[in-house]
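STRUCTURE:
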């Protein structure tokens, strides 16, 4: 397994926890995911689950949830988080090779993890193996084309090309939905700490200086792909 380094959550998990709590204050990403395919009573796999922040939300209505995470300290934190949730477990693995049976999931979800565009093909193949016919793969990532957050991202990643990443998913048949969210912080110290783990020092300082108050608009991309169904339409025969 090849873990893609995630300095934010690997080195500052407590600050990343504050970030996750601030993110998507109005639940816009959750609403977009539910519209794409509700997971009530379903089997859900969260790839690159980090320390499991999103597992309880899935577990509230899913039949079963598996968090998949390659970084051992985060596997332990995720396991601690889901103690007391009998329908959730966490496995140590990368997106490229997940120790779960073929056709065992209805929803495979990944948020800001591994599926960053070219290079994630092995994970896409693996996700399709895990899905049942008609199952849904949902990839959530930051939209670097949306100001102001996207401008800060591109300032630190000058070679990152949002249109080419979008084309990568589009060519593979994904539907793209852009979702506008609000990150809402309890205080300026939390906002500064989060900007400090996401950006280089000069970009974080600029971002803090131009952000008034306690909230920040942040755009996301939600790419979804449904695995083809197993049944032929009525009247059609092989
Ligand atoms: C930015 S974090 C996001 C964590 C979580 N999805 C969340 O939203 O809180 C990215 C995660 O992807 C994990 N990761 C790195 N390489 C991976 C791989 N090859 N397959 C799956 N996950 C990977 C990292 O260890 C990290 O936990």
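SEQUENCE:
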């Amino acid at each position: 397994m090849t873990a893609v380094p995630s300095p934010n959550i690997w080195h500052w998990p407590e600050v990343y926890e504050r970030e996750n709590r601030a993110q998507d204050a109005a639940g816009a990403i959750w609403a977009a995911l539910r519209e794409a395919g509700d997971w009530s009573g379903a089997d859900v796999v969260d790839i690159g689950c980090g320390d499991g922040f999103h597992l309880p939300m899935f577990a509230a209505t899913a039949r079963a949830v598996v968090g998949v995470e390659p970084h051992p300290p985060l596997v332990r934190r995720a396991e601690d988080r889901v103690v007391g949730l009998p329908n959730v477990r966490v496995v140590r693995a990368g997106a490229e090779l997940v120790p779960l049976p073929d056709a065992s999931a209805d929803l495979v979800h990944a948020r800001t993890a591994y599926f960053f565009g070219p290079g994630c093909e092995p994970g896409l193949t693996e996700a399709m193996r895990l899905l049942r016919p008609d199952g849904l793969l949902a990839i959530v990532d930051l939209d670097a084309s949306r100001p102001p957050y996207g401008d800060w991202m591109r300032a630190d990643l000058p070679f990152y090309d949002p249109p080419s990443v979008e084309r990568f998913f589009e060519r593979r048949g994904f539907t793209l939905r852009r979702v506008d969210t609000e990150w809402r912080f309890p205080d300026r110290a939390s906002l500064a700490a989060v900007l400090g783990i996401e950006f280089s020092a000069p970009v974080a300082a600029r971002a803090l200086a131009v952000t008034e108050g306690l909230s920040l608009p942040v755009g996301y991309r939600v790419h979804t792909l449904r695995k083809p169904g197993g049944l032929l339409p009525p009247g059609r025969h092989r």
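REMARK: The first helix runs from residue 7 to 11.
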